[in-house]
Design a protein that fits this description.
It is an enzyme of class 2 (transferase). Pathway: Purine metabolism; XMP biosynthesis via salvage pathway; XMP from xanthine: step 1/1. GO terms for molecular function: xanthine phosphoribosyltransferase activity. Its EC number is 2.4.2.22. This protein is α/β, with parallel strands linked by helices. The protein has a single domain, classed as 3-Layer(aba) Sandwich (Rossmann fold). The chain is 28% helix and 33% strand. It has five helices and ten strands; from the N terminus they run αββαβαββββαβαββ. The strands form three sheets. It has a six-stranded mixed β-sheet, sandwiched between helices. A hairpin with a 6-residue loop joins strand 9 and strand 10. It is globular, with a radius of gyration of 16 Å. The chain starts with a helix and ends with a strand.
Length: 194
């Protein structure tokens, strides 16, 4: 399923950089177009209707805004975000794992307080990008540790050519990406949608 509005915005305002990087900071992950986020949330709510979502899980920082706006379309279910660093605000029992960030080119811990992710929760994971799937693997692992079920994965932009989405789907996860990119060219700036 593609969302034409998001594809058009990527084509107009996205910038292809060397190293297979797509900058969408003008509307998605630095400056936020809240109206677009609202439309994205409505689309995920349509796609995942009937899944009885009890929590939305994302990772700091880029996923938070999208997830919070989307939550309004799921009856205001709580949004939980995995933190990328230990802090004094994280207390009590925790679920933790490590992920590799493609854009930052380094590993991060990801941590969720155990009281926010529970056995029996039906979790919708939402994130801005899906490339190789490392961040999502970390969030799936946190759900596994909690005994929560991953009811679905909602992605704003999937880079299909990097294969992360295919690997998750092969494992039985339902992944719904609103824009799917087949290829990008940093010399011409061209973006081909799948």
């Amino acid at each position: 399923m593609c969302m034409r509005e998001l594809e058009e915005r990527i084509a107009r305002d996205g910038v292809v950089k060397a190293g297979n990087v797509l900058k969408v900071d003008a509307f998605l992950n630095h400056q936020c177009d809240v109206e677009l986020f609202d439309h994205m949330g409505a689309e995920w709510a349509r796609l995942f209707s009937g899944e009885a979502i009890t929590k939305i899980l994302t990772i700091e920082a880029s996923g938070i805004g999208i997830a919070c706006v989307a939550a309004r379309h799921f009856g205001g279910v709580p949004v939980v975000f995995a933190k990328k660093a230990q802090s004094i605000n994280l207390d009590g029992e925790q679920y933790a794992t490590t992920i590799y960030s493609y854009t930052k080119q380094k590993e991060y811990p990801v941590i969720v307080g155990a009281r926010f992710l529970n056995k029996g929760d039906r979790v919708l994971i939402i994130d801005d990008f899906l490339a190789n799937g490392c961040a999502l693997e970390g969030l799936i692992e946190l759900c596994r540790q909690a005994g929560a079920e991953v009811a679905g994965i909602g992605i704003a932009i999937e880079k299909v050519h990097q294969g992360g989405g295919d690997r998750l789907r092969e494992r039985g996860f339902r992944v719904e990406s609103l824009a799917r990119i087949a290829a990008m060219d940093d010399e011409t700036g061209e973006i081909a949608f799948a």
